[in-house]
């Protein structure tokens, strides 16, 4: 059936007495037809003499009609197909179809937010065929309409991220369509605008008039948010609260939300539907229970009286003022008293306690709960993450039976300890899936709310989080990537989808290695494992690929692409260049290189490029999003809060007008700050020799490097002499003092193992200069320790030691098997592709509901490896496991693993240590988080180490995850050679595979 | 008598058989006449048929005659006065005068290095009158000749520091001159060229050919050194040893030294007249006693066999190779065995043990001595300083009776822990006087040798040290300043002398606050007490004054003035500007000020100015001293050794293309990094108010300041509103974002105490901006806590508390008296003017030989003061004494003081803790120096603190020095308000004085 074309307007038929939000959404759909075909749909309302319900929101509805953004299509005289839409049990238009058995609604009837699509022939006189959309309730119908919008090519982000509608000449439906969309997986799904300055607030201030209390968060803005939420199939919202009062700044806000169909809440720290600022502005006396109840109780009561006409979830209990803990002296009994009083007020105002109530167990509140605080069964327990995307606790035992159920408060943007993260998106979708699937399986299904900062630029994780909340079964560990492709296709079309999705995956993986705000020049090693350069190259490739895609997109798509993909890729890559160039500047200055100065210039270039990307974003589309990229992100000074102004790290300049004391030529080696010739604290005093890390035939990269650089004022020729079996990428050359950026060269060293003597030895590489070496120094040399080893033929497959360590990606295990039990419930590992810090993803124990295991009952991940270094009890090896930064979601079942080398006794570690014992002080600590948590969330990994004695030879490392939630990313066996780096040594060579 | 004029050549008459060194010095004097009058003197040698002694140094003597530097005057036919010069008991020319009773030599006869001047009528046929110079021995005569040189106007530094001779038309002697110059105070006096790269070695390499082993330290250079030593009345020399071999690099070196009259030695670490490099070059096997004696013993024997023809002091014992300790396992018995063997060799080579022998108790060797090692009585014990100018130990008890006596090895230049100091001179003459007078009084009078690095630029301390060694009684604590004036007069004439001396005093005082190599951007506080700016202003004034003097000097004097005064003043001031500007750059960047960027530019300007001063020095006089200023001094990285290349500290840049998050205006206050409006870790989160330190009527400066700055992109007008009794230096203004250097203003705050309410209070100062304060912040304010206090009229004189502390310069005591005893031997304090870190100098206990004292027997320094703050045992005051960095020179008598508040029980502190007990581990520690020594020498002060409970009111602090050597500089009573700074709070207000 032709629904619409550029000469035929789709005909929407609704019932005048359907929910105003439904009628409003139908108007959106009509406009969406216009966005796609150029011709708006028409909306016809079935009229009745007597309304079945009372409507009282017409004032607000008129506001939305005045929305100049939403109505753009032309009119047409041609008629397209008919769409009949309405809410089951509310309007005759639909109920008559059901009564006449033209449609079977049994699959959605009585369900929460379900809907169906069906083509019906002759649904009513004069209509040959119609596509009938029926919602089981108000939002069911609304979602059914927005589903059509999406299907015809309008993204939920058409306005908020400028995604161009996918224009079409004509739109058809298939024959005999019947689609049933059941109840969403999670009952209340939404987001929280929070810490909305400077970006969103700055943008508001130039786009909307301020209300009487100085906030521009008025209904003219919120209508876009409500529409976005509904298009994303969400239903729940916590409004901006930092400098605003949702109900006060604009009296239209709350009724408008209700009309749209949004269930309002307030944040975890704002009880009883009142903003914190309401207390600041209108309250009297201290915000202190049992001290100032005569003011607090009426304050709370007014909140629910004001909310009563509308759909709400009431935030219960209290926290301190301004999102802080209540005073330390508060007792659980006092909190119970607060809630008891609040319940009395609800009973009085509502006449019963059926209004949904939520208690957010945020930060210290969770500790009170765990200490035995009583909570009424019908209050939803909203468990919180740690603000960093790790859910802190989930229902256990009979908690899953509570009538109020449970939910999760999650973050993709945060202001607080140990560091804000709010510049651009850093959230890996694989991580959201892993944590929220865990929560879902553990029955936290009543509320999912995500803190999204300023909304932009968190479009991708918002979409993913809400899609998962809407249909948790639709995405598995293996299909996160498919979701990304599908979502990319929706925004930028099928042709670009795969490439864009690839960029998004790499972008979020790199961004997730560490929050941008915690990246600095000391993070990635410029000395060891080529770590900084490798990461920088990944960013540069990513930025180039993202830029390349941009060239293939139609002009209409570039704005949305820039906002959600290109700007983060370019700005992220630039930020990494800034910090890594700073690290090089600092290293080069220590080493006296002329190139230190060009590196400083590069940092300042990057600093201004960063500004230019901000300008590019803010001036896009004639400044539509001006100020939305105002967030400072460079210049954090060891403090959690954003810097008030951006500033560079310290840049050092060398005196290039003077020659170094040890001549014009300097030579440095991988893994050392030392320079020869000359004195420094990084190699023996006055020694003219540096030592490279050892080389063996099993090196991961197969090479080492040295660098020769100018630290003087003269040209010089350099020449390298080596043993015949040592090969250098270049054996002679000339280096000028200027230009500074070209005043150095890197020389790679490889060994021709066929010619290298067997066993261990030391080769000396001399580097001569055509100039002298200053008044005190002489020709430098580099020592190359080599181990010409080989594994026996009996070692068939596995990792091989090099450089006195073995590094193994978790996913590259040699073998595994299911644990005890049968079928899909038998414990086993799944790979979480792309998850976390390693390219190959991570290994997670499944199923989520598996019981506590032991090495006997758990499946093992086994890693075969071969070592040449003997370790002993006095000089043991160190085995480090890198695990996901997850927390102990079951107080009595801390995350735990066991490991053994060969047939040794398994060593067990509960590596997240808040609930390892029942020590009350642990959960009463100021952070209410486990020891080491700040480091773990910063690193996005727990690292758990033990010593082991491993004789040289063939071995098997066995790893057993003993609790669901354990996710293993990487294992490093340090045989004495591991050097400092952020990510640990890169993966060792695997032979036989 | 006319001695010489531009038309009359002075006639020097000597005896052909006098010491070659005497004849050579006479040639120098003849040339000096030429330097002064334009006409060289003539030298006539009395001839004899039979020489009274054997002369064998003619080859070397010819070398000196070929010296092109020394001979410049024209010849004249006119004859001037006659000077007869010669050595008593050696030549007939003199002995005949004595025999004929024309001169009485009894006052010098038989003395060491004495001489006399006397005008004699008709000394010989044909001579009416002559000035007769008679030396008691070779060097006596040489000194008598150089004395004439100095008197007629030739500085010892005429060549080595380019001091212009003071030209005169004619030179006369007074009538009936008779001057007796007795034996020098110290027998052997000299210096040590050490760690002579890169400066001196670089200079050598471009001025002299290298010897066969690569060193340019040949006789053509050393002749200048020997002449300098003799002109400075020194007689002893340790040659450059780092890359050289004195006896090997040029076979002329040793005979030339002897001919000149120089007694050769080798450094403390080079026994038996052999250079370390001789072992490296010619030795076999390890430098290890009892392991390789078959090589070591002949090596040593050859050294003294080679030295036997010449005057030497033999360095005894052994240290490890390269100026390091012997292996830790060595025992004192082994060292004794080494020396016993060495004594046997001396007996064999010399036939007796009368050759002077020296054992330097450097670093760990002193510990062996203190542990009871036996040392032959006739070996001179050369006590060492700590390399930082603090003598470590001096003779005690019957050690003063030893026939070998004692000496001191001192440093004015050093390479080693905790930090090199070798760029420009940092040594305060007052400190040399205090330490070396102490040493002299304690009978260390046989050898004084000073490590002078590259000689230049240590001209001033070299002169002072050797003058003091020559005549210890000629300089007292009160006449150091007079010496400086006299010395300045010698170099630059009497007109400039006072001004130059003033500059030198201020220069060495400022340089001595901390070695330049240990100054960095974190040293002087840019937050507290205006410390950094005050110090910088002192440097800037000094540089301006030094520059001003330069304008008054004749062109011929500017080179020497630049080398010894102007360059250190300018380069020192510039270095301070560099570091303090860096500190401001870093502070301004933290605060987001636009001016951070101009401060970075200033640092880079300073960095290049530093280079320019180096170039100016190196190119002076057509590059005469090229490379002599090559020493790196910027860019030390927490390591003792010099950086191979100069590099700046870290410079931060703010993003001036973007506005700060809290608007264009920032406000900061004295003593805080915080900025309002806005968030930072330096003031309460989101608070818009900063708090100034408290103000009272007794403030040292009487004012506080705030700063208003631009941290944005727009102009703004600012306006301050205050209480009526608070005065601001400016109440309104406008600040532009550019130019960055002008984008801030400082506003001083004073209180009109007549109008201020009594008691304590808080005044609020609001600072408004014509622009907004960003999306989240509001108008800032500054809190001014004030204490409107007054001392009672009963408090007549003394220090008054302000800002919760009292800071007192030691010299500003209220009263003192002599201790028990009578006359000049009664213990008492003297002021050491200008000494150390305080403007008023320091207070030292005298006499040096006073016995150990107690508070009953010692004199007290009493300081009256008045406090308003009550301290208690739980919140006590802290009393800190700043004392000179001296060490415990008597093992059983550690430096000690006592103090009491009012009539409280005296509290005793032995504040230098190596010998506080007899714990052997203390002296065996790796540094062989007391705990805290590195800090003390860096700070040039010991700080010694205790707590005290001091109620509000009038008090007297009593201080008793209990051992000679205790030098008190400053006392700070912290009543809770002292903030971090390098020098401690500036002196508090004294009333009634």
From TrEMBL, chains A, B:
<dbReference type="InterPro" id="IPR029018">
    <property type="entry name" value="Hex-like_dom2"/>
</dbReference>
<dbReference type="InterPro" id="IPR041437">
    <property type="entry name" value="GH115_C"/>
</dbReference>
<dbReference type="InterPro" id="IPR042301">
    <property type="entry name" value="GH115_sf"/>
</dbReference>
<keyword id="KW-0378">Hydrolase</keyword>
<dbReference type="Pfam" id="PF17829">
    <property type="entry name" value="GH115_C"/>
</dbReference>
<dbReference type="Pfam" id="PF15979">
    <property type="entry name" value="Glyco_hydro_115"/>
</dbReference>
<dbReference type="GO" id="GO:0016787">
    <property type="term" value="F:hydrolase activity"/>
</dbReference>
<feature type="domain" description="Gylcosyl hydrolase 115 C-terminal">
    <location>
        <begin position="798"/>
        <end position="987"/>
    </location>
</feature>
<protein>
    <recommendedName>
        <fullName>Gylcosyl hydrolase 115 C-terminal domain-containing protein</fullName>
    </recommendedName>
</protein>
<dbReference type="InterPro" id="IPR031924">
    <property type="entry name" value="GH115"/>
</dbReference>
């Amino acid at each position: 059936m032709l629904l619409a074309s550029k000469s035929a307007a789709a005909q929407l038929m609704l019932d005048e007495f359907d929910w105003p939000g439904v009628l409003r959404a139908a108007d959106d759909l009509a406009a969406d037809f216009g966005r796609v075909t150029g011709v708006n749909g028409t909306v016809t309302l079935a009229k009745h003499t007597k309304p079945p319900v009372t409507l009282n929101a017409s004032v607000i509805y008129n506001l939305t009609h005045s929305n100049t953004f939403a109505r753009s299509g032309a009119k047409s005289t041609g008629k397209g197909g008919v769409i009949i839409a309405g809410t089951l049990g509310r309007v005759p238009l639909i109920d008559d179809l059901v009564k006449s058995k033209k449609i079977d609604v049994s699959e959605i009837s009585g369900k929460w937010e379900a809907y169906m699509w069906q083509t019906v022939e002759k649904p009513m006189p004069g209509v040959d065929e119609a596509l009938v959309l029926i919602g089981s309730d108000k939002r069911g119908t609304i979602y059914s309409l927005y589903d059509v919008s999406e299907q015809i090519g309008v993204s939920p982000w058409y306005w908020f991220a400028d995604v161009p509608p996918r224009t079409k000449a004509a739109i058809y439906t298939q024959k005999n369509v019947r689609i049933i969309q059941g109840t969403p997986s999670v009952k209340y799904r939404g987001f929280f605008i929070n810490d909305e300055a400077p970006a969103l607030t700055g943008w508001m201030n130039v786009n909307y008039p301020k209300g009487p209390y100085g906030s521009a968060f008025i209904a003219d803005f919120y209508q876009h948010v409500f529409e976005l939420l509904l298009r994303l199939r969400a239903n729940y919202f916590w409004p901006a609260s930092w400098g605003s009062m949702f109900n006060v700044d604009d009296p239209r806000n709350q009724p408008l939300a209700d009309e749209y169909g949004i269930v309002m809440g307030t944040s975890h720290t704002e009880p009883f539907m009142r903003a914190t600022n309401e207390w600041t502005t209108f309250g009297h006396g201290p915000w202190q229970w049992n001290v100032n109840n005569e003011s607090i109780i009426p304050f709370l009561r007014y909140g629910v009286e004001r909310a009563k006409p509308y759909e709400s979830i009431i935030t219960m209990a209290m926290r301190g003022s301004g999102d802080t803990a209540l005073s330390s002296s508060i007792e659980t009994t006092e909190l119970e008293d607060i809630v008891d009083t609040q319940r009395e007020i609800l009973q009085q105002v509502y006449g019963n306690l059926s209004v949904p109530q939520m208690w957010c167990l945020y930060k210290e509140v969770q500790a009170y709960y765990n200490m035995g605080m009583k909570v009424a069964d019908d209050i939803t327990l909203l468990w919180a993450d740690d603000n960093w995307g790790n859910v802190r606790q989930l229902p256990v035992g009979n908690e899953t039976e509570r009538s109020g159920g449970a939910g999760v408060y999650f973050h993709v943007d945060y202001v607080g300890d140990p560091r804000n993260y709010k510049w651009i998106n850093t959230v890996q979708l694989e991580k959201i899936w892993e944590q929220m699937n865990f929560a879902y399986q553990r029955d936290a299904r009543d509320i999912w709310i995500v803190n999204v900062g300023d909304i932009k630029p968190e479009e991708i994780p918002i979409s993913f989080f809400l899609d998962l909340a809407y249909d948790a079964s639709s995405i598995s560990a293996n299909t996160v990537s498919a979701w990304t492709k599908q979502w990319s296709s929706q925004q930028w079309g099928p042709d670009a989808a795969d490439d864009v999705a690839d960029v998004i995956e790499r972008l979020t993986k790199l961004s997730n290695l560490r929050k941008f705000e915690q990246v600095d020049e000391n993070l990635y090693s410029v000395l060891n494992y080529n770590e900084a350069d490798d990461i920088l190259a990944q960013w540069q490739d990513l930025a180039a690929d993202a830029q390349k895609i941009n060239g293939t997109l139609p002009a209409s798509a570039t704005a949305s692409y820039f906002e959600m993909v290109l700007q983060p890729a370019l700005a992220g890559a630039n930020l990494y260049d800034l910090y890594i160039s700073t690290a090089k500047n600092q290293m080069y200055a220590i080493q006296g290189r002329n190139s230190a100065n060009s590196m400083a210039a590069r940092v300042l270039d990057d600093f201004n490029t960063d500004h230019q990307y901000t300008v590019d974003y803010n001036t896009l589309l004639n400044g539509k999003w001006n100020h939305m990229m105002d967030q400072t992100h460079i210049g954090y000074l060891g403090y959690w809060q954003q810097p008030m102004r951006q500033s560079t790290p310290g840049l050092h300049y060398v005196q290039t007008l003077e020659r170094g004391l040890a001549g014009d030529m300097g030579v440095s080696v991988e893994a050392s700050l030392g320079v020869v010739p000359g004195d420094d604290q990084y190699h023996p005093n006055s020694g003219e020799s540096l030592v490279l890390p050892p080389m063996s035939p099993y090196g991961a990269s197969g090479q080492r490097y040295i660098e020769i650089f100018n630290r003087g004022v003269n040209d010089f020729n350099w020449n390298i002499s080596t043993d015949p079996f040592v090969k250098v990428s270049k054996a002679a050359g000339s280096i000028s003092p200027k230009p500074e950026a070209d005043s150095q060269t890197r020389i790679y060293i490889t060994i021709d193992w066929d010619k290298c003597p067997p066993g261990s030895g030391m080769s000396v590489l001399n580097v001569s200069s055509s100039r002298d070496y200053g008044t005190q120094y002489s020709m430098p040399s580099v020592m190359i320790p080599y181990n010409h080893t080989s594994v026996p033929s009996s070692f068939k497959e596995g990792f091989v030691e090099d450089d006195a360590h073995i590094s193994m990606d978790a996913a590259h295990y040699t073998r595994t098997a299911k644990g005890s039990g049968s079928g899909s419930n038998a414990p086993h590992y799944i790979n979480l592709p792309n998850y976390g810090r390693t390219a190959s993803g991570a290994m997670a124990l499944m199923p989520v509901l598996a019981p506590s295991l032991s090495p006997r009952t758990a499946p093992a991940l086994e890693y075969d490896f071969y070592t040449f270094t003997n370790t002993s009890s006095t000089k043991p090896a160190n085995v480090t496991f890198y695990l996901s930064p997850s927390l102990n979601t079951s107080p009595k079942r801390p995350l735990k693993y066991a490991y053994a080398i060969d047939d040794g006794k398994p060593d067990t570690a509960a590596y997240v240590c808040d609930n390892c014992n029942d020590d009350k002080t642990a959960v009463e600590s100021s952070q209410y988080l486990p020891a080491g948590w700040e480091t773990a969330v910063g690193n996005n990994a727990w690292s758990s180490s033990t010593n082991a004695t491993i004789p040289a030879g063939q071995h098997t490392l066995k790893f057993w995850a003993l609790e669901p939630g354990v996710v293993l990313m990487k294992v490093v066996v340090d045989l004495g050679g591991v050097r400092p780096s952020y990510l640990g040594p890169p993966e060792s060579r695997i032979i036989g595979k």
